[in-house]
Design a protein that fits this description.
Structural class: mainly beta
Radius of gyration: 21 Å
Number of strands: 41
Largest sheet: 16 strands, parallel
Shape: globular
Amino acid sequence: KGDVTVQVKSGYTTGIEGMRESPTQSIVDGNIHIIVGDPAYKGTDRICRIGANWDIIGAGEKINLTQKLFQVGGNVTVDTYENVWGWDLDGTPASDPPGIVGVESAEVGGDVTINVYGSHLEDIIGVDDSATTGSIVRGNIEINATDVDLRNSSNYQSGIIPVYATAGKDVTVNLDGGSLSGIYGYGGTVNGNMEINITGKPVFTDDEAGVWGVNNTDTKERSVLNFDLAETSIPIVGYFTEMNVRNDSDVTLGNDKKNAFNIYDVNINTGAKLTTNKQAFSKGALTMDDGTWIANGYLYVTTTTDTKDSVLTMNDYAAFGYGYKDD
């Protein structure tokens, strides 16, 4: 009955979990709050070292073989800070270091919120399944990642994975700076909408990964990518119904291995600059207002184009109104 709070400021631990053992006995009617690390220890040798590959988990546990889901009636919140390390201080990560999972093999009646401030881990997952499948968050999932350091030795999917199971409502990822391989929004089922917001100067370390939304883009609001006061380079973005580049952002998409994007509407506004390499394919409209787009590869806009007070530089083949080519 009631709430569960777990706080570990420093030391060594093999995983941190809000629930363990039997799902029929480990039941939380209220909320779960996991707090790992302490902002007072930022940049010091007083770290919280998470051992082996055992994750920080809010609801549920890493290995659930019971075929029954853990139950949480309220919300789940996980907060981690810069002194949290999944490998030795200033060392190198293993192939599968620990990460953060909001919900694993559990059913949560409320929302899941994960706040990560500079932690050094493998990944951040909103909701996931283990040996017992069917995990679901009935409410919203929100991941806030500020100056994160997400790595593993192979640089494979050491990033943010909002949904590996089911989200009942909306999913939001807010990334401000940091380093990671990518954001992978297509791993599970999202019954609401997905919004990914990028600001600051994040570094994307995998030259073949990128930022992906929901692969079912059936409505206008279904999957939106926003760059706001951002300066970054990303190999590829995809599965978005709308992409907004605004407020003096300077964004480069695409490289010699990957096309820039294949999405729907593209909006470049308020002093923002977009540079695309290889192919950029808009399956919707292009709207620019005080924006700049430098296209160094093929450029396709399927429907309408509006470039008010803007600069559009085409250094390769370009086609506008591509969807009407047979009219």
